[in-house]
Design goal:
The protein has about 475 residues and is an all-alpha fold. Helices cover about 65% and strands about 0% of the residues. It is built from 21 helices and two strands. The protein has a two-stranded antiparallel ribbon with strand order 1-2. The chain starts with a helix and ends with a helix.
Length: about 475
Amino acid sequence: MQFAVIQRVVGLLLILFSTTLLPVMAVSLFYKDGVINAFVQAFVITLVTGLVLWLPVHRKRREVRVRDGFIIVTLFWTVLALFGALPFVIADNPRMMFTDAFFESISGLTTTGATVLSGIDDLPRSIQYYRQQLQWLGGMGIVVLAVAVMPMLGVGGMQLYRAETPGPIKDTKLTPRITETAKALWYIYLGLTVAAALAYWLAGMDLFDAIGHSFSTISIGGFSTHDQNMGYFKNPWIYAVAIVFMLLAGLNFALHFHSWHRRSLKPYFADAEAKTYFVIIFLVVAISVIVLIATRSHADSGEAVVHGIFQAVSIATTTGYTTSGFHWWPLFLPVLLMTASFIGGCAGSTAGGMKVIRALLLYKQGMREIFRLIHPNAVIPIKVGGKPMPDQVISAVWGFFSLYVVSFTLLSLAMTATGIDFITAFSAVVASMNNLGPGLGEVSTNYAGISTAGKWILSFAMLLGRLELFTLLVLLTRSFWRG
């Protein structure tokens, strides 16, 4: 283990993270909201800590090894969430205890969107902006790590896209150098954010809300600058903009790169995961709209269609935006939406969940086993896009799924041990592990009523889901620390 290299990288991360507080200070000064001192103090503490870590080892320029990479990727969110909580702790409005502040910070950075805050409309503008920016920064980190870094460690959804996989993505790297890959992804992420902000503004949002909601839309975060979330606007055009950009953000960002690079939409139509993603979204939307109309849950059919499409897309992509909430929807719809969030978006996107490619491979493996009951001696390869997938990939997917189920079960039991009812415990863990945000029961609006122990459990669940289990769980094994 190269602790000096890890220390150097963490120090650099903190130095870079401190600079992200500068635009927040500018917002505070512009609106004169009285919170500038909290951000200045947080900036100084973060910068000084980063320099203290970085300066003694800044000449240690050794290559990062795989073991170092696992620790660095995990620390990316834990350390930044810790320092990201500082403005919430220091500020007088809102006045938050450390547990609540850390929960809000890690929820933002992991793009979960679960909040302990109420009265968001009355918060200082800089605090409103800061929450949105946390999600945007976390979303960028997710894309770069998922597409450029985690394949090097042998984990993550993008690991499924090796040279054997057909379609537009022939390799895990979009460009020959990882720095160039990160830069390309940054341009795409920034471009989508600017486009979303402009579209929101043209649809009727003011500039502040347009920028803030573009941050949380492209990151698939779900934070809003209003207590009523997207329901505050009551504008079908704004809902339409959100739907389009949620769908785009849920796609593999490597597809966006190849589509832009080739000036063609063919990469989207040639990708098996993208096609499956849209089929799943369509089915969830269709079922939701039909049930809402049939049960007359809204004043008229048009309203049912609008809210049905918006909520279904929001929850299925794990964005977590709400219009009037989905927890009161009739029959099985709330459970259907929560179940859809288990699949989430595509690998290499800002979405949470197990990822569509894993769900697709699990389905194909299940069908193969059924076929083998009829033809036990048949050799039946599992194909994606017409090309066979290696057996080790199928084994990895089954291993991931098994760990996901076990982790979900244990965390749900731990949450019920804190004294909350089963529905709340179940949905809170679903919403946290899948980086969704809103749940059912006591967490349908916010997480303020969850106990301190429960918030730490859910914070761990957010991190576990965001790091796709293996990256975090490998650190809890003895063999990792022995070598």
